[in-house]
Amino acid sequence: MTEAPLGLLAELTHRCPLHCPYCSNPIELVQRADELDTATWQRVFDEGRELGVLQVHLSGGEPLARPDLPQLLAHASGLGCYTNLVTSGLGLTAERLADLVERGLDHVQLSVQDSDPGNANLIAGVKGYDRKLAAAALIKDAELPLTVNAVLHKANLDNIGGIIELAERMGADRLELANTQYYGWALRNRAALLPTREQLAAAGPVVQQAKQRLDGRMEIVYVVADYHEANPKPCMYGWGARQLTVAPNGDVLPCPAASVITTLPVQNVRRSSLAEIWYDSETFNAYRGTEWMREPCRSCPRKEIDFGGCRCQAFQLTGDAAATDPVCTLSPDHGLVQDILGAEIIPVRPELAMRRSV
Amino acid sequence: MTSLDSVPRVRRGVRCTYDKTRDSDVVLFPEGVLLLNETAAAVVSRCDGAASIGDIALALADEFEGVQPDDVIEVVDRLVARRVVDVD
C-alpha cells in the first residue's frame, strides 16, 4: 500500500546568484517566464497538505529570488506545515528575515562552499563568503534553528576540519557534510570533483572526532561518497516513498534529479493534481516498492535497506533505470564505476563548468 | 542518564501538531516527522522545561491507566535519540 508523502521540496525558482559546479538543479534550468505563479504554488501547497505533506522545503535556485516568498511561506505555514528555507544566504536581510519569521518560518538551511574564503568564492563563482557569515548571524539573532550544508568534493575535502569550525562559528545546530552526488551539473564536472581515496580516508576520522567533541551541541550528518562505497545509498528511502519535488515550472518528480530519466513521462501540476500524480501516475509507480526489481536486487537481503540504490544513477550510467545501481559491488555493471574512478581521479584538476543559464 | 528527576524540554525548532490525513499527533523537526501515539503525544506536550519526568508520570497516571514512570522514561529517551527533546 502506498503511503502519503511527508515532505515536499518546492524548487520555487532555478535563478540563483551562485554558480556552484555541483548544483542539484538540472543542466537545463527552468527560465523565469516558465515559473509557476503565486496562486498556483499556493494551490500546490493546498494539495500537498491534503495529501499528507507536513514539511515544505522552500528551495531553488535561491528562493529569496522570488518576491512572493513571504506569501508562499505564510501559505504553507498556515496549512500547518513545517517550513524550511533552503538558501545561499545571499539576499537575506534583517528585514526580510523578520518578515519570514513573522509569517511562520521554522528553520533555515544555509549553504557554505568552503572554510577558505578565496576557495569558497571560487567554487560559488561569486564573492559570497562574507555575506554568508552575515546571513548566519542574522539567522542566529532571529533565534531560528540553523542547519549548515556543505557539499564536499576534491577541491574542499581537505578543509573539512575548517568547514566544521566554520559551522561552529556560525552557531549551527546541525551540519550536513554531503559528499557530491553525481547528477546534473555535478555529473558534468565529475572528473573535477571526484575526491581521491586518500582524501576520503583522511576526512573520516576528522568527522568522527568532531561528532564526539560536539555531541549534544551540533549534530553532524555525514553523507558518504557513494562511488567509493560497496553498497548503494538508500536513495530517497525508496522511489515515491516519502517525498516529492515540484520544479519551478510545475513538473513533479520523485527526486530533484529524476528528470534525467527520459524514459518516464513528465507529470505537471498544471495538468494533474498532486494526489493523482503521487498515487496513480506511471512515473511515481514505476520503481515503488520492490516488485520492479530484477536480480541481483530481487533476492538481495538488503533490498529493503537500500532499495537497489538510485534509479537516476542506474539510468545515467547504464541507460536502464530498473538496473541495480552500479555503485553496488553486486551489480553486473559495477565495472563502470571502477572504470570512472580509475580514469577520472587524476592529479590535474580539469576546468570547472560553472552553472549558468543558457 | 535519564531519571525521574530529569527535566525534558522540547527542542527549539520542533513543532507539535495534529495531522488529520494520518489521524495522528505528529512532531515536526528539521530532520523529519515523527508520528506519536496518544501517550507519547501526552508526554511531548508536557516537556516544557519545568516538569520533571516524575511530575509528568504523575500527571499521566491520572489520564491514562497503566502508564508507569519507566514508560515515560522510555518515551523521553526515544525523543532524545530523535533530537525532539533535550534533557537537563
TrEMBL record, chain A:
Complex formation: Interacts with PqqD. The interaction is necessary for activity of PqqE.
Reported cofactor(s): [4Fe-4S] cluster
PANTHER family the UniProt entry points to: PQQA PEPTIDE CYCLASE, RADICAL SAM DOMAIN PROTEIN
UniProt-recorded Gene Ontology molecular function terms: 4 iron, 4 sulfur cluster binding; cyclase activity; iron ion binding; oxidoreductase activity; S-adenosyl-L-methionine binding
Protein source organism: Kutzneria buriramensis
NCBIfam families in the cross-refs: PQQ_syn_pqqE (TIGR02109), rSAM_more_4Fe4S (TIGR04085)
Keyword Lipid metabolism among record annotations: no
Swiss-Prot/TrEMBL GO biological process terms: pyrroloquinoline quinone biosynthetic process
EC assignment: 1.21.98.4
SUPFAM superfamilies in the record: Radical SAM enzymes
Catalytic activity: [PQQ precursor protein] + S-adenosyl-L-methionine = E-Y cross-linked-[PQQ precursor protein] + 5'-deoxyadenosine + L-methionine + H(+)
Protein role: Catalyzes the cross-linking of a glutamate residue and a tyrosine residue in the PqqA protein as part of the biosynthesis of pyrroloquinoline quinone (PQQ).
Protein name: PqqA peptide cyclase
Keywords: 4Fe-4S, Iron, Iron-sulfur, Metal-binding, Oxidoreductase, PQQ biosynthesis, S-adenosyl-L-methionine
UniProtKB/TrEMBL annotation, chain B:
Keywords: PQQ biosynthesis
Signal peptide positions on this chain: none
UniProt pathway annotation: Cofactor biosynthesis; pyrroloquinoline quinone biosynthesis
A Pfam family annotated for this UniProt entry: PqqD
One GO molecular-function entry: quinone binding
Subunit organization: Monomer. Interacts with PqqE.
Name of the protein: Pyrroloquinoline quinone biosynthesis protein D
GO BP annotations, alphabetical order: pyrroloquinoline quinone biosynthetic process
UniProt KW Cell membrane keyword: no
The organism of origin for this protein: Kutzneria buriramensis
Residues passing through the membrane, by range: none
Gene3D superfamilies, A to Z: Coenzyme PQQ synthesis protein D (PqqD) (1.10.10.1150)
